[in-house]
Amino acid sequence: AILPAGKVLRGRQAGMEVVDIPFDRTTEWLLERRIVGASYTKSLRTVHARLAAALAAERPAEAPAVAQLVPPGTERASLTYFDAKAVMQALLDAGLGEKTLFGGYSNAHTAQWADIVRRFEAGSIHLADAASAMAQAVGYELPALKKEAARAEKELSELVRRQGEYERLAAAAEERYVAACDKKGLGTDCSREEIGRRLRESRSLLRATFARVAALCQSEEMGGAVEYYLAYVRHCLEAAARLGADVGAKAAPPDVTADGADRAGKAGKAKGKAKGAK
To answer: Which of 2, 13, 88, 227 has fewest C-beta within 10 Å?
Structure first.
């Protein structure tokens, strides 16, 4: 049973003693009671090396269930003793459990996985390996999965909200489309094919309309109207030019240079003499 760290319970169930220990101290508990040896990590590294070699080998064609249990590309760190037992059982179920005279398996794949299972069980190191995998899963992988699930739920709720919004926009667009079709006189049949058919029919009508417009543009009345418009435009441009010239002359700034001041003084004296003569 998995309990909070530091909590240990003991009791009896069905005549057997049950010892509940914290999951993160399972390996220590196994070492303290000498269920596994102190050097179990060395033996476990050997088992892991043989497990990696088995994963690198081709999957037996006679046992397709093996390829389902451990597909090509499966990492060694993701497998435990229980996975090796499942592969071994799949090989036996496929009829690859025939043994030799000396008690070994004749099939190379079966012999390889049987050796892995045997090494796992030797010294009960499979218990330490399972305890380590359990601590890793509970302490790290499960919290990460919970966070990922919460994030996925949040994204799902946002997507549901967007879906509802897009559905409302689609319904409003469909209403506007139907209204536009009614305005154009298309009626209830407002499909793409019907609109294309109406457009193809309108091309013959447009040719006659374009021909009538071209004939009007080439008539004498249109020529007179164009000449009148050109005369009006020239008149407006000339009037604007004259108005601009008058405004520019009135707004011309005084000459404040020395020559300008001298000319202004002479002009003032000349006006004074003229007034005295009168």
So the answer is: 13
